[in-house]
Amino acid sequence: GAGVSQSPRYKVAKRGQDVALRCDPISGHVSLFWYQQALGQGPEFLTYFQNEAQLDKSGLPSDRFFAERPEGSVSTLKIQRTQQEDSAVYLCASSPGPSYNSPLHFGNGTRLTVT
Amino acid sequence: AQSVTQLGSHVSVSEGALVLLRCNYSSSVPPYLFWYVQYPNQGLQLLLKYTTGATLVKGINGFEAEFKKSETSFHLTKPSAHMSDAAEYFCAVSDRRSGGYQKVTFGIGTKLQVIP
């Protein structure tokens, strides 16, 4: 009965480093979303997976951002050559199906600070 | 494209007073609307949702919201504020994509402060 789990909880990276953020969705959930939440802002959509297929990556801010979900469960968001503007909380959410009115179950997020 | 506007980034109410958090939406199709709550250092949690049917929606913790199409509004209310209601509240709208999946757009959030 565990919820969505994200790790690490906090990550400090030096500018230029690569980082990898992990999301463990609720077991059996088909849909998985990544959101970016900057300080004082609402979550902004990054990308969407339906099982292992990445159906929408329109929100990824640059080609430095890459996400995968190879087996349709755990997902990883990778940011290459981090920049200060990448500092934000990265939220992962899952839902049981693709249904447009299905509520999202959020993890507690990973707070990334780029120095 | 759909969007939501939350009026007031910070709202303060006294304990026991009415809570009113405002949200207006813009959508080219009948919207699916949500309110989420975020406690410090936690993820977002669903409070309530409107899909179809009854326009007055009841959620958890005594919150409710009314969908008003003529006003394109979905304001969140609670008759009597409790100290534990202090949190950030996000209004959101869901867009049905051609692939059948939802893309949820969030407002910037309203921080609710409850004064004892």
Relevant terms:
heterodimer; A: 115 residues; mainly beta; 7-stranded mixed beta sheet; 4-stranded antiparallel beta sheet; 11 strands; 0% helix; B: 116 residues; 6-stranded mixed beta sheet; 5-stranded antiparallel beta sheet; 58% strand
Explain what the structure shows:
The complex is a heterodimer of chains A (115) and B (116). Chain A is mainly beta. Helix content of chain A is 0%, strand content 48%. Chain A has no helices and eleven strands. In chain A, the strands form two sheets. In chain A, strands 2, 4, 5, 6, 9, 10 and 11 form a seven-stranded mixed sheet that branches. Chain A is globular. In chain A, 37% of the residues are buried. Chain B has 116 residues and is an all-beta fold. Chain B has no helices and eleven strands. Chain B has strands at residues 3-7, 10-14, 19-26, 32-38, 44-50, 56-58, 64-68, 73-78, 87-96, 102-106, 110-115. The A-B interface holds A 4, 31, 33, 35, 40-45, 48, 50, 55-56, 91, 93, 95, 98-104, 106-109 and B 9, 32, 34, 36, 41-46, 49, 51, 90, 92, 94-97, 99-109.
